[in-house]
Amino acid sequence: MSYLDVFIMPKQASIAKRTSTITNSFVNGVIPCIMPTEKEVAEALAVLEMDNNSIACAYCGDPFTEWDHLNPLVKNKQPTGYISEIHNLVPSCSKCNQSKGNKPWHDWMTGNAAKSPASRNIEDLHLRIERLKRYEQKFTPLRLEFEAIVGSETWNQYWQNCETLHDMFHEFQLLSDDIKAKIVRYLNDVEAASPSREKTLSVQEQPVQQHADFSSDLLPDELEGIETATNKSFVMRCLAYLETNSKTPEADVAILTDPLLSKKEIGQDYAILKPTTSIDKAGKEERMIGGYERYYCDVITLWGKRYIVSKEWYGLGKVNKSNNRNPFLAWVLSHS
Hints:
Layout: H1 19-28, H2 38-47, E1 66-69, E2 74-75, E3 78-79, E4 89-92, H3 94-100, H4 105-110, H5 125-138, H6 146-150, H7 152-192, H8 202-210, H9 231-245, H10 249-257, H11 259-265, E5 273-275, H12 284-287, E6 288-289, E7 292-293, E8 300-302, E9 305-309, H13 325-334
Helix pairs in contact: 1-7, 9-13, 10-11
């Protein structure tokens, strides 16, 4: 292992990428929170067959860490009308909460999203689904017509303010890119005049440029936050999204499973998917290419067939590796 294999460059900041944070702030800024009574919490847990001494994640049964919105507060970067109140909240673990995002709870629980209960083979999944159905039948969560409450003029002005900030941030990003380019050119000139230095900043320039393969503002809700996900979560979420939204499934499978096509179309050195007959975990030999384990051991089902997934992913932090996460994400979006 070389020294560069253990070196990770700090993540590059981007002004334009903060626009999703602004949108979330505008959404959450108008959504009220209603604190429940102790009786209401006890009633909610009772329907889920829990009490204050046996509380667990309603989705998978793991220890709970938070309460999750059963119905999402945000869809397509706009409030849905649901708010934070006990009849729209259930206990959850962090991995279920993050995996579910703003997807409909039943579709997510039974789907193959990374860390969903179905993908983790939760044994009593059908019982948990039945409890949540009873929960919805027992309690009707509040859903407000925000625009009707505050008036169309006020509501539209609020979201126009959000768009104005987005436009400003994109303008700021252009100036930021110009300033950074001038600084890089200056440092490269200094490097060129210093023969004792072996390299220039050009090594770091390429990943930064590749980062613009897609706009985080255009990401669908199902892929929100994908830019900062771990490699495994990143590729599993991308594949789950592609399976649901693929325009040409057979052609996409051919690209994902053929090393030459993966290299040509996506820039990935190994086939992203490798067919397997295993049920849960692939053996070590099956995961090996070139003396290294190139695939995750987890077996996933896509389009009705089982695969293991390449774990060879590199973001901006790997200065000695080409960034292949963003090109893959851009490819997924263009094929869905």
